[in-house]
Amino acid sequence: MNYAAAIEPIIPSLTGTQEKTDSYDYQLARQIAAGDIDAFEKVYQQHHRRIYNLCLRMTNNVPEAEDLTQEVFIHVYHKIGGFRGESALATWLHRVAVNKVLMHFRSAKRRRDKTTEEEKWPEFEAPEATSGLSTRLVLDRLALDRALAQLSPGYRAVFTLHDIEGYDHNEIARICGVSVGTTKSQLHKARRRLRTLLRATNDQGDGSSS
């Protein structure tokens, strides 16, 4: 099975739904900053699923993703006064989420080992089989998730934002606080690393089936 092909089906989820920065986002932010719970509820209902999915893809851990999603929206409620309307609210929220996840990784790394530079990622737990899903699609997805779990946090963030969430390099640079050149370089290296990992998985599968 060619697991390397698993990279290709992951296409930007934002195609045809390009977000726009407008006065509505800014007004919502101002209302939340003034303590308007209804406005906060609107933002939560509109964005919490995508924020959770982003956290889940970056952590590969459901409880951690749930906790981090809560942290993101707690931060939003208290700090949304910092949103100036210079980008889409969704972009600002993703920046908060990425920062929370990266801070979580750094904190976990310090707790585990203060001297080791290489991040150790948790083992991926395979979900229960779901009827109607192709075995090949499931295995391809599991292989991709395992490979993603071996990328460094920075590479994984850029790959997730670009190839899965559909953000362009300018948006990713704003979210991650780095240059566009850095995001392009990290994406290239992340894809190259993923291909290597998936090719190795494919070779192991071929060897075990022969």
Features:
single chain; 210 residues; mainly alpha; Rna Polymerase Sigma Factor, Chain: A; Arc Repressor Mutant, subunit A; 2 domains; disordered N terminus
Task: Please specify the SSE layout and strand pairing.
Blueprint: H1 23-33, H2 37-59, H3 62-79, H4 89-112, H5 135-148, H6 153-164, H7 169-176, H8 180-209
Helix pairs in contact: 1-2, 2-3, 2-4, 3-4, 4-7, 5-8, 6-8, 7-8
Task: Write a structural description.
This protein folds into two domains: 18-121, RNA polymerase sigma factor, region 2, helix turn helix motif (Rna Polymerase Sigma Factor, Chain: A); 123-210, Arc Repressor Mutant, subunit A (Orthogonal Bundle), CATH 1.10.10.10. The model is unreliable at 1-21 and 113-134 (pLDDT under 50). It has helices at residues 23-33, 37-59, 62-79, 89-112, 135-148, 153-164, 169-176, 180-209. With 210 residues, it is an all-alpha fold. α1 packs across α2 (37-59) and α7 crosses α8 (180-209). It is built from eight helices and no strands.
